[in-house]
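## retry 2 of 3
previous attempt timed out at serialization; input unchanged, resubmitting
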Amino acid sequence: MPAHTISLEQSAQAPKEILFELLTDHQNLGRFFDGTYRLVKTGSPMPNGIGAIRRVSAGPFSFDEKVIDYKENEHLHYRIVKGGPLQEHGGWIQIQSLNAVTSKIQYRISFSPKVKGTGWIIKLLLEKSIRKALENIAKHGESTWKR
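## retry succeeded, writing output
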């Protein structure tokens, strides 16, 4: 059972479709999140959908995340299937429209560290990194939509 959870929200003045596209573009997530991302297996019904596997390289770690649930413009659920300092890791991203021009991203991850006693520092670092990424995605989404 996962020992740590991070829950973050970010609103943006952009339609949820734009934000969802940014968050599910596995090849280009490195624009927002720390590390490099590469799609190693395409999913269904979209290349970034169910079954897609992205390889993440962040600092000294490399790991594969697999999309296990996907509904276009609504939500994405993934889990680590190989590598990294975490076990029992799951990530849930949900995007909803608040009104005609505002959307909200809800991002939650749960994990247990592979090395006992390191969870608190991993949580601190992940939370900071994800918060920054969501802020950048919101800004990018807003500037893209307003063009």
